[in-house]
Design brief:
With 216 residues, the protein is mostly helical. The chain is built from ten helices and no strands. The longest helix is centred in the first third of the chain and has 28 residues.
Length: 216
């Protein structure tokens, strides 16, 4: 008798029950994540207790701890969700928006999304200061976005970019990301992220540093 034939197969009902349980667990997980982001639109992560996250999602504290070891683990889950969602949104912009509207659409989306999630983003920035490894998912995300912008510029120019041209685009993205992050933390300069022309200034800075308009 073979090992395969000697094993008893799980009843079909048990498999169905397991699949249903997994779906319910995923729904609970997703609702807790969504509740976390909603609460972080109002105040800092440290000021949001686990009990309130669970209550906002419609579950018990036990349901929270069945899926997350602690609030730090929950924060990491928020990061993974945020990165996945941002890559989908930005890929759509970088694929579907015309050359004329691309940079405006990109910076409008980035600034508005981060401002809406500013308390989440501030928590991420502070955590990255304490533990540089925390920033790795964002570093990977920005690398992907940078690659896509370089590819889009190359397509627009109808040729491969030189090393200098490519580095100018990557550096321009680094400069504008830094301006956004500084605006989230201490607002050190003349322009505030809340200013109505902040997005326009970011776009102009990116164009100037990257040489974007020369790549034709």
């Amino acid at each position: 008798m073979s090992l395969t034939s000697s094993r008893e197969e799980a009843p079909a009902g048990a498999v169905t029950d397991l699949a249903a349980k997994q779906r319910r667990s995923q729904i609970t997980y997703d609702k807790l994540i969504a509740a976390g982001f909603r609460l972080l639109e109002q105040r800092e992560l440290d000021a949001v207790p686990v009990a309130e996250i669970a209550e906002r999602a419609g579950y018990s504290v036990g349901a929270f701890y069945a899926r997350f070891k602690n609030k730090e683990d929950f924060h990491h889950a928020l990061v993974r969700h945020h990165v996945a969602e941002r890559l989908i949104a930005l890929e759509r912009i970088l694929t579907e928006i015309s050359d004329e509207e691309l940079l405006s659409a990109y910076f409008t989306n980035v600034v508005n999304t981060l401002w809406r999630n500013r308390f989440f983003w501030r928590a991420c920035l502070f955590c990255s200061i304490q533990d540089p490894r925390f920033w790795e998912p964002f570093r990977d995300m920005f690398r992907i976005i940078s690659d896509r912008l370089v590819a889009r510029a190359s397509q627009r120019a109808g040729r491969d970019l030189t090393n200098t041209e490519e580095m100018d685009i990557r550096f321009a993205l680094q400069v504008t990301n830094g301006a956004i992050n500084n605006g989230m933390i201490n607002r050190p300069g003349a322009a505030s992220i809340e200013d109505p022309d902040f997005i326009e200034r970011l776009e102009r800075a990116f164009r100037a540093v990257s040489g974007w308009d020369l790549l034709r």
